[in-house]
TrEMBL record:
It comes from Streptomyces carminius. Residues 1-38 are annotated as: Disordered. One of its GO terms (biological process) is DNA alkylation repair. The keyword DNA repair applies. This is 3-methyladenine DNA glycosylase. The keyword Nucleus does not apply.
Amino acid sequence: MAAPPPPAVRRPAPEAAAAVRRWTPPEPFDPRDLPRNLRVLGRGPYDPAYRAAGGALWRATRTPCGPATLCLVPDAAAGQVVAEAWGPGAEWVLEALPALLGAGDDPSAFVPRHRLVAEAHRRRPGLRLARTGLVLESLIPSILEQKVTTDEAYRAWRLLLRRYGEPAPGPAGRLPEGMRVMPGPRTWALIPSWEWHRAGVDNKRSATVLRAVSRARRMEEAAGMDLAAAVTRLTAVPGIGPWTAAETLQRSNGAADAVTVGDLHLPGTVVYALTGERDGDDARMLELLAPYAGQRHRATRLILATGRRPPRRAPRFPRGDIARL
């Protein structure tokens, strides 16, 4: 039987004028902090939902009010960020702009306990943890990243959005080419098994995505919960463990203490950066991060920003291709 075509989508009519908002970030404001802080929302350099182009950051997203495209440009002279938005969700994303840019984040609660961290904190005073307020758009790509290389996960996300996402709303000729809004829960649920396979997603991960989208409303409710309750809500879904929950809530909730455990590289990086030891594991990482309780994710972001990595001693994680099996 022939595969059904992707769900039909209609490109929204371009808006005559964008909805616009200017917002003044807290001091100190450095225009370079805008891409630095929001980079975690992109899934690779070719993410159809996130682009950096011409000094602007572009983000295509699915809000509770519908699809939206957000364009952010720093105005260094005014010390502001200029935001333009298009689509049915334009007003929603502009209302959520301060949270996205870290207005709800409280870096004053962070106290460096290591010289390396103190220096990184001094160099990055404008670090703010973004809060999107949207769970599924971070949860689904995090599921795709389980137990595979980053490149494999980015490829799967890219292929699925290109085939099943809908064109991002916005002005023709200005909107970066190929931008797509993530599919809605029903569309995810209708993707046939062979299309997951073609994108390189095994049955375990695709089944986890399907379970998550079948509980879409309850998943999105986690954006308004404290960290412990949100982790409990997400991990109640089979296939979603602490690693996936942390990676999601760091973005959707701006969770300063959502430390990632079970990662292939992070423990070794944190332990090496703080101690010079080359055999770090989760237990040792958590021991070293204990003084940062409540701010452990911020501490790891600062540690990663230093670029201090342990020497590579093993071959890279082998890349699989289930589409060839």
